[in-house]
Amino acid sequence: MKRQTIGCIVVFVVGMGGWSSCTSQQAVPDVVNAAADTASDSGGGTEADTNTASDTSLEQVIGATEMAADMGIGMGIANTLENTTAWETGWGLPEISNEFITGMAANGMKTVRVPVAWDTYSVNGVIPDDKMARVREVVEMIIAADMYCIVNIHWDGGWIRNEGNDNEYQLTDDVRVKFESYWQQIAAEFSDVGANLVFEAMNEEGQYWIDGIVDGTPDYASLNELNQLFVDTVRASGGYNQIRNLMISGFATDIEKTCVAEFGIPTDPAGADKLLLSIHYFTPYSFCGLETPVDWNGIVYPETTWGTTEDTALLLSLFEKLATFTSIRNIPVVVGEYGVTVGGDDYLRETDSRILWMTSVLQACLENGFVPLLWDGGTEVNRMDGSLSFEFQQVLTMAGL
After folding, report:
1. Is 275 within the bounds of a domain?
2. Could you count the other beta carbons within 10 Å of the beta carbon of residue 356?
3. Taking a C-beta distance cutoff of 8 angstroms, is the pair 325, 368 a contact?
4. In a domain, 226, yes or no
5. Which among 38, 104, 206, 303 counts the fewest CB atoms within 10 Å?
6. Are 172 and 220 in contact (CB under 8 A)?
7. How many helices (H) and strands (E) does the chain have?
8. Phi and psi at residue 306, to the nearest 5°
9. Would you call 124 helix, strand, or coil by DSSP?
10. Paired residues of 372 in beta bridges
């Protein structure tokens, strides 16, 4: 999402035998030989370079399916490194601290998504050293706390979809070049960071429309091309990038727009089972995010309650559709954002409805084997010490966690 006050979700996946721990990786990627063998055995991919070390443990070459089953529940650090006003603190939140990170881990988090605005702070297309170093510092804190970490290119002004210019919602050559360049820079910086780090192609900006006509005919070919460019660029960057699991983006990260025949899964040089699919869930948005009335071809008012039979049926039907589609495509799912705001002054959400909605989404994720990531800017997870709100503790209890 763009800046919202919805809670950032950390990705958590419940393993069958309880919580299992992420294994920290060696600093030097000697696993590429094993990865190349794996890719060859699976019938896909190119042979990796022979950067060597000694440890070729299973954890270092874990597949996407196994990783998803180990990622537990988690959270995205919202409104911080992806803010486009002033680096990290521009939207009123504190700098990310080790106390915050370790607090999340102590409270059961297993995965942390780190959305980043790279383009806003780049100079002539080059990511400044201090910005790259700060993201790396955060990534290392997360991995040191025995959690998985996901790093992406976030909204960042909407440049990926040419937001606000004459080519809006169309993929152009300058976007291709910039997208590839940023992923070359990011991948190069993190090539020595182990496989507990996952890269995510983009946020919700992966939505292109034929002739730029929104809600006309979706341009799946352009999104498929960009997801493939992401995979190819990272894989060519050496080190752990040749084997790390990567997250591709659904169409606008929307379930219904993604679960169609036209949406393609990239060919991966690393072989089978190294990709995850990113989907977001804020349905209905009138309850999850809307805080003031909006004229969408008729006034739409914020909803303050949720939980009718029809509400629950819609949630279950959408998750069933996603489960069926991804089972056929053989790709695990990360619900990279879900959450519900407390509402505006005139439209405060009912607390019980917020708890019920979050619990229902979390349970639907776990029942279908999806990784749930709460989108939170401090509402449910305290940004100083990582402690959980009373409401989110209730959600975890009701979900049996």
Report:
1. yes
2. 20
3. no
4. yes
5. 303
6. no
7. 11, 13
8. -155, 145
9. coil
10. 335
Residue-by-residue DSSP string for 205-248:
T---BGGG-TTSSB-HHHHHHHHHHHHHHHHTT-GGGGTS-EEE
The secondary structure element, H or E, covering residue 311 is helix 309-329
Nearest CA among 356, 381, 285, 287 for reference residue 7: 381
Q: Are 179 and 208 in contact (CB under 8 A)?
A: no
Count of other CB atoms within 10 angstroms of residue 40: 14
DSSP 171: -
Sequence-distant (6+) residues with CB within 8 A of 191 are 29, 237, 238, 239, 240, 241
The strand pairing partners of 8, in sequence order, are 375
**Dihedral sign computed on CA atoms, order 315, 316, 320, 323:** positive
Q: List all residues 6 or more positions away from 71 whose beta carbon is below 8 Å from its beta carbon.
A: 11, 12, 13, 110, 111, 148, 334, 371
341-356 pLDDT tens trace: 999 989 999 999 999 9
What are the distances in angstroms from CA 304 to CA 160, 279, 308, 316, 347? Answer: 33, 24, 12, 20, 6
What's the pLDDT at 317? 98
pTM higher than 0.85 for the full model?
yes
Domain of 286: which CATH number? 3.20.20.80
Taking alpha carbons only, the member of 386, 391, 283, 287 closest to residue 337 is: 283
Mean pLDDT by 10-residue block, N- to C-terminus, for the chain (401 residues)? 43 32 38 42 35 36 94 98 96 97 98 98 98 98 98 97 97 98 98 96 97 97 98 96 97 98 98 97 98 94 98 98 98 98 95 98 98 98 98 97 92
Q: How many CA atoms lie within 13 A of 58 on its CB side?
A: 2
Domain region containing 379: 8-398
Distance CA 332, CA 330 (A): 7
Query: Considering the domain boundaries, does residue 12 fall inside one?
Result: yes
Q: Which residues contact 57 (CB under 8 A, 6 or more apart)?
A: 23
| Count of structural domains within the chain | 1
Query: Which tokens hold the place of 194?
Result: 């182990």
* Cα–Cα distance for residue pair 341/79, rounded to 1 Å: 14
Kindly state whether residue 102 falls inside one of the protein's structural domains. Answer: yes
